[in-house]
Amino acid sequence: MKKGFFITFEGGEGTGKSTQIERVRSGLVARGIEVVVTREPGGTDIAEHIRQLLLTPNKEELTMMTELLLMFAARAQHLEHVIRPALRAGKWVLCDRFTDATYAYQHGGRNADLVWIQSLEQMVQDGFKPDLTLLFDAPVSLSMERAIKRGKLDRFEQEGIDFMERVRETYLALAKQGQGRFRIIDASATVDQVTLAAMDALTP
Ligand code: TMP
Question: If both were cysteines, with which of 65, 112, 114, 133 could 106 make a disulfide (CB 3.0 to 4.6 Å apart)?
């Protein structure tokens, strides 16, 4: 039975999720909470191998179906070996992306059939969802500029502005339908302001 708290960090490229997850971790540890920070795709040895396949540009095109199945393969591994055990032990799990990213990128970005994603979600997660999702939102022009400054672009970051606009719109639509699970955070504010908003979202 789940006892901990599962918080996911979502948003487009260059929205500052990784910086914020570290800052939130420090804030929670200072409150005496046991925290596990992890990410998707990835978070276990095998899932990190799958991440490499997904993010590294390759001469052979990765089909949309392969991409989708690999996302859920990595997730199955991650849930079994990291997320569920940590929650059972009463820890708080902060996860850099989860299934909302599959809806945003594979459905919104790549146009993968919604029913496929819903079926895979049911198979792999069996109703399991985050307790809270922080959606870091910023205009695509700003966030892509930050991603480009960070260095070499991965396979998703190379997709371009139209793809990223669809990802952003899908995230915002998910937040609207999300039955209170989402908090939208303005990621175009300063790093400190964004941290304050993120910590505020965690305060009951
Ligand atoms: P990032 O977490 O470092 O931003 O990189 C992960 C990339 O993988 C990012 O471009 C989004 C993409 N992704 C998907 O397309 N679908 C998913 O389900 C997940 C978890 C990530």
Answer: 112
Q: Which atom belonging to ligand 1 lies closest to the Cα atom of 105?
A: 15
Q: How far apart are CA 191 and CA 14, in angstroms?
A: 12
Average pLDDT over residues 125-149: 93
- Between CA 75 and CA 71, with CA 100 as vertex, the angle to 5 degrees is 30
Angstrom distance (rounded) from CA 87 to CA 94: 11
Residue 97 CA to ligand 1 center (angstroms) comes to 7
Ligand 1 centroid – CA 51 distance (Å): 9
Q: What is the pLDDT of residues 12-24, one digit of tens each?
A: 998 899 999 999 9
Beta bridge partners of 7: 94, 132
Mean pLDDT for the stretch of residues 85-111: 97
